[in-house]
Amino acid sequence: MSGTAGSTTAGARTAGRTVSVSRVVKAPAATIFAVIDDPARHPEFDGSGTVRAAHSGGGSHLRLGDRFGMDMKLGVPYRMSNTVVEYEADRLLAWAHFGGHRWRYELEPVPGDENGSTTVTETFDWSTAKAPWFIELVGYPRKHVPNMTRTLERLAALVETA
Question: Can you give the pLDDT at residue 56?
Fold first, then answer.
């Protein structure tokens, strides 16, 4: 899926055991956050092609400590249980699963933008993983960058107005 005209991707950044991709999205942070913190909507913006459906927990919107499950498929179907480990309404949402690594979304309003654009940063953080060496061995940090770029493109397409 191609990005919406006028949006930008800042590119990937690696620091320690994190890799991040950012994009300016032409929508207010609250609008974007309403999509990200609803597990049922995750398949709509997932750029990896692995997220299929929310299957339990968390309700329609997440809060710190909530657990939610996702039906996934990477060759074969499987289920993933996640726990929200970082949360600030309209600004920050991160979850971790049994492996300990985290997926994080940070939203920062663009200063001086009268149209309400937001810089959205998705981060894969394996600094908290139980087996960070394995994540590095299979090359996930590098492999996740194109998927995160597609995720932010899809997210922008969902929330940006013409």
Answer: 61
Cα-based distances in Å from 134 to 45, 82, 141:
27, 20, 11
Instruction: Tell me if 38 is assigned to some domain.
Output: yes
pLDDT at 10 exceeding the cut of 70: no
Q: Are 81 and 97 in contact (CB under 8 A)?
A: yes
User: How many angstroms separate the CA atoms of 34 and 146, rounded?
Assistant: 24
| Global confidence as pTM | 0.86
CATH of the domain at 152: 3.30.530.20
Three-class SS string for 60-78?
A: CCCCCCCEEEEEEEECEEE
- Residue 1 within any structural domain of the chain: no
In a domain, 30, yes or no: yes
Is 25 in contact with 155 (CB distance < 8 Å)?
Answer: yes
